[in-house]
Amino acid sequence: MKCPYCENEMISGKICSISRNSGLVWKDTEEQIRLNDEPKLVARINGDRISGYICKNCNKIIVDYFPCNK
Ligand SMILES: [Zn+2]
To answer: pLDDT 10s per residue in the chain (70 long)?
Structure first.
């Protein structure tokens, strides 16, 4: 996928919450990047993973979502 901001090729990976202390992290094959450590949000999504694409040029992440009211 091409970044809509800079048109660089984006890298696929996942947004994960692996423990209460780690916050939200981006993970791909190269590295792990901390996104956020707001405790209430981390507790709510603990254990989940969201697939997405990252642009390391503009520090943007794009994720899909699935409507839950269909
Ligand atoms: Zn970009």
So the answer is: 999 999 999 999 998 876 666 678 899 999 988 887 666 655 555 556 788 999 999 999 998 877 877 6
Rounded to the nearest whole angstrom, what is the distance from the C-alpha of residue 61 to the centroid of ligand 1? 9
Please provide the DSSP assignment of the chain as one string: -B-TTT-PBPEEEEEEE-STTT-EEEE-SS-EEEEE--HHHHHHHTT-EEEEEEETTTTEEEE----S--
Protein residues placing their CB within 5 Å of the ion ligand 1: 3, 5-6, 8, 55, 57-58
From the CA of 70, how far away is ligand 1's center (Å)? 32
